[in-house]
Specification:
Strand order of the largest sheet: 1-4-3
Number of helices: 15
Shape: elongated
Order of helices and strands: EEEEEHEHHHEEHHHHHHHHHHH
Structural class: mainly alpha
Length: about 300
């Protein structure tokens, strides 16, 4: 994105009100006496003011005489510098990695895909800059990151680290060039399926639902991978096709979510029967435990289908 800003007349900058100014990181900027062009700007200090200015302009009450100091910092190819500028500039609301990545190539590409392919869904990359969407179906990209990571990357032990998913190395892994808006739609449908079957999960695990939801999403993904049914395996391998009929896909995912619930029920019963403590808040973040649960879920699904049952 390139932003063009008219240069202020410095004789009129000083006014009756004081403002700390804005700090903006960007890929690059160039300036002439009349205009400054900013490539991929991201406000790291003063975001609340920018939102207020935008609302005032939309309401027709923003004066063209308003002048605000803006500090521009070029950070292209230097993510660590962007982090340092954000950390040192913002003393009110910390700017997290999600905010820094909101104007990155992958996020802009995915937002454009949603607008073109799924206009009924609002893909939210930066809530502080988002106007209230008209769509009822909203997918925040941090929620999408967790579901993509647990379902498609099959790494729930990383997915639980919500604040770390937008750090450069993790963002590149989760939102890689192969990930499309359809992947996010399917991942979100997995989350919806698990939510709709929430009552099937053990009471104790429902008390930490955010964590259990990630684990259940992982189990659903592993079940899909183990299935001999092409319709199920295709949900992950061909998400664009699966997203054509979302109602049918959600119904299928709810069946696998029930198998995931049964797997966690069995775990709970076994631990209680053995008089062992169920430290699930720790174990549901443990890679070894989660891999073992994934294999158990696959076995349970294959057993149910071999006996002629419906998952």
């Amino acid at each position: 994105m390139t932003l063009a800003v008219k240069g202020p007349d410095l004789h009129h900058v000083l006014g009756h009100y004081y403002h700390n100014g804005l700090t903006v990181v960007c890929d690059s900027f160039s300036s002439t006496s009349a205009i400054t062009r900013i490539v991929n700007p991201s406000v790291v200090n003063g975001a609340q003011s920018v939102v207020a200015f935008a609302r005032a302009e939309a309401e027709g009450v923003l004066t063209p005489q308003l002048m605000v100091f803006v500090k521009l910092v070029e950070v292209a190819g230097r993510p660590q510098l962007a982090k340092e500028v954000s950390r040192r500039s913002d003393t009110q609301n910390p700017v997290n990695p999600r905010m820094l990545m909101s104007h990155s190539g992958p996020q802009l590409r995915l937002a454009a895909e949603f607008a073109a392919l799924y206009p009924m869904i609002a893909y939210e990359t930066r809530p502080d800059f988002s106007n209230p969407p008209k769509q009822k179906w909203i997918i925040p990209n941090d929620a999408a990151a967790q579901l993509l990571c647990t379902v498609f990357n099959a790494m729930p032990w990383l997915a639980v680290k919500r604040t770390a998913l937008f750090e450069s190395e993790n963002h590149a892994l989760i939102f890689n060039e192969l990930v499309s808006a359809s992947h996010i739609v399917v991942a979100d449908l997995v989350g919806q399926a698990v939510d709709k079957e929430k009552g099937e999960y053990p009471d104790a695990y429902r008390s930490s639902w955010r964590l259990t939801r990630i684990v259940a999403g992982y189990l659903v993904g592993q079940i899909l991978r183990a299935s001999n049914d092409g319709a199920l395996t295709g949900i992950l391998s061909a998400p664009a096709s699966a997203a054509v009929d979302m109602v049918a896909t959600l119904a299928t995912l709810r069946r696998t979510a029930r198998v995931a619930a049964a797997t966690l029920k069995i775990r709970r019963v076994q631990l209680i029967g053995a008089a062992e403590a169920d430290d699930y808040n720790r174990e549901f973040k443990n890679e070894t435990t989660l891999r073992a649960l994934g294999k158990e879920a696959q076995k349970n699904y294959l057993l149910a289908t071999s006996l002629g049952g419906t998952a």
